[in-house]
C-alpha cells in the first residue's frame, strides 16, 4: 500500500512526476487541479463555483476540496493506494486528510522561485489526458494522444504571481507540518525530468 503526497509550488513538476510514480506502483493519480478543470469543462455547479477562485489565482475553499478528496480516495482504483498531487494545500486540508486516511510518504519537490514563472508560462496541457508539455522542449501543438494542447487561463503571467503567493502563504507551511510527522523527503526539482524521477524513486525506495 502506497499513500503518497507530492508537495511543491505550482510548476515544480508534480504532475509530470506523478504520472510516472502512480503508474510504477499501480496506484491512482489524484490531481485536484485536473478534477476541478474537468468539473469546469463539464459546466457543473461545483466547476462554476471553483472557476471564480481559479481564474483569480486563489485557492478554492477547503470544504469543497476536502469533500471531493474524501470521496475520491474511497474509489475502487485507490485500493492499492493513491498519489495526491495538489492536495493538501492548507493546514486545514492536511488535518482533514489525516482524519480520513493514513499517509505513508510525502515527497516535497523543491524548485527555486525564479524558475517557476518560466515553467508555468511555457506549460501547455492536454485536456484529454492531462499531460503537461513545455514550449521549450515540445514544438508541436499536439499531445502524444493526438489532442490539441492548450494554455491554461491561470497559467498566464497576471495570475501566476497570485498563485505563487497563495503557495507561500498557505501551502509552504505543510513542509514543516509533514517534516514534524517524519514523513517528508525533499527532492531537487531543478534537474532534468529523468533525474528528478530517479531521485523520487530513490527517496521512495529508501
Ligand atoms: P506542477 O504539476 O507541479 O504544477 P508540471 O508537472 O505541470 O508542474 O510542470 C510544469 C511545467 O514544467 C510543464 O511545462 C512541464 O513540462 C515542465 N517541467 C516539469 N518538470 C520539469 C523539469 N524537471 N525540468 C524542466 N521542465 C519541467
Ligand atoms: P493545479 O492544477 O494544482 O495548479 O491547481 C489549479 C488551481 O485549482 C489552483 O490554483 C487552485 O485555485 C485550485 N486548486 C487545486 N487544488 C486545490 C486545493 N487542494 N485547494 C484549493 N484549491 C485548489
Account of the 3D structure:
The protein has 206 residues and is an alpha/beta fold. It has helices at 14-25, 32-42, 45-54, 62-72, 91-100, 113-121, 157-171, 173-180, 193-205; strands at residues 2-7, 28-31, 81-85, 105-110, 123-126, 132-134, 149-150, 184-188. The strands form 2 sheets. It has a 5-stranded parallel β-sheet, with helices on both faces. Strands 6-5-7 form a 3-stranded antiparallel β-sheet. Helix 4 (62-72) packs parallel to helix 5. Bound molecules: adenosine-5'-diphosphate (ADP) and adenosine monophosphate. The site of adenosine-5'-diphosphate has 18 residues, from helix 1, strand 6 and helix 9.
Per DSSP, the total helix count is 9
Shape: globular
State the distance separating the first and last CA atoms. Answer: 16 Å
Helical amount: 40-55%
Attribute tags:
8 strands, alpha/beta, 206 residues, 9 helices, binds adenosine monophosphate, binds adenosine-5'-diphosphate, single chain
Amino acid at each position: 500500500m502506497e499513500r503518497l503526497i507530492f508537495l511543491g509550488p505550482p510548476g515544480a513538476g508534480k504532475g509530470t512526476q506523478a504520472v510516472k510514480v502512480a503508474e510504477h506502483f499501480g496506484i491512482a493519480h489524484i490531481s485536484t487541479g485536473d478534477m476541478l478543470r474537468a468539473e469546469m469543462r463539464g459546466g457543473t455547479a461545483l466547476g462554476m463555483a471553483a472557476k471564480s477562485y481559479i481564474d483569480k489565482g486563489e485557492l478554492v475553499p477547503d470544504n469543497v476540496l476536502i469533500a471531493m478528496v474524501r470521496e475520491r480516495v474511497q474509489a475502487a482504483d485507490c485500493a492499492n493506494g493513491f498519489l495526491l498531487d495538489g492536495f493538501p494545500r492548507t493546514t486545514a486540508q492536511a488535518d482533514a486528510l489525516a482524519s480520513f486516511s493514513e499517509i505513508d510518504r510525502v515527497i516535497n519537490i523543491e524548485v527555486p522561485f525564479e524558475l517557476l514563472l518560466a515553467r508555468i508560462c511555457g506549460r501547455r496541457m492536454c485536456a484529454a489526458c492531462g499531460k503537461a508539455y513545455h514550449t521549450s522542449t515540445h514544438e508541436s501543438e499536439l499531445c502524444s494522444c493526438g489532442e490539441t494542447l492548450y494554455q491554461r487561463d491561470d497559467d498566464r503571467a497576471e495570475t501566476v504571481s497570485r498563485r505563487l503567493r497563495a503557495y507561500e502563504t498557505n501551502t509552504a507551511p505543510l513542509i514543516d507540518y509533514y517534516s514534524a510527522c517524519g514523513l517528508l523527503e525533499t527532492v531537487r526539482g531543478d534537474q532534468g525530468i529523468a533525474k528528478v524521477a530517479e531521485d523520487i524513486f530513490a527517496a521512495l525506495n529508501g
